[in-house]
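Appendix B, record 7
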Amino acid sequence: MLRPLARVIVAITLIASGAIYAQVKPNQLLVFIAGTDGSGAPITDLKPEEVAMTENGAPGKVVSLERHNLPIKLTLAVDNGKDSQLAMASLREGLTGMVQALPADVEVTVITMVQPQTIVRPTTNRAQITQGISSIAPEPRAVSKFSETLVEYAERVDKDFKDKKPAYAPMLVMVATPTPELENVQPDTINKALNTLLARGARVSLIMVLATTTNVVGATADLTQGRQAQIGGQIVKASRGKFEAMTQFSRLSTLLPEWGKEIAASHTKQTNQFRAIIDRPGGATGALSNPGLRITRPGANGVVSPDGRFID
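Structure tokens (predicted):
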């Protein structure tokens, strides 16, 4: 039987930006562009004269345009605690389908949350990844450490960026049950972890799944109102991730591959994009007024980002 869960609301100041353009100088804009040709294939040879920026109908000027590569590195964190048993077959199937949907160059790490423990270290070896996923088993007397997993992931990302200055986009997908945590990480520690993830450009998505037949009413409420949902929901929203609460755990087998396709689309854009610096028309400064940007190549389509991260 699930223990009563005290409602813990963690006050967290999160950093987020929804701007389309970033400012380089008062009269210059920085924008990242990913384009596709008429067949839907990524454009890899975009030229400055094929990028048209306007403000109030007046043309700006592309002063530099260069390839920019920001691959996604994906970490999968899986609840393998006592209430994951019924969902485990669907979870393994879904995770396998997600990995199969990814481009071959996407690096994947797999973590189980009871310890937490890394069962697949960062690799692009699909056989190794799927073997690790198939080895995940529930621990019938243990409870997963959701908060600790999130904090440790943030610490690893932060250390990686400090030590290596890597150019990649961290992405975390967590699959959790609403089983109350036995050990609560302090709010200040969680606050630091979530802001670290945002500062490092990480994107976090979360699936809360009901995989137990005990205390169904209380557990169902905890899918969206419990501690894990409260903490995870904040970073999901701020990082523009995805959140799903489900009572039918069989949905994992189809939802995770769907997310895998979306991650694949984002990765393809981020590894085939261009970084553009653009002079605003007439040396304009201050707030942008009625801006526009398009690729002029016939049949081409494009999307823009202020930081090189594209979300599908």
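Remarks on this record: The first helix runs from residue 88 to 101. The two ends are 39 Å apart (CA to CA).
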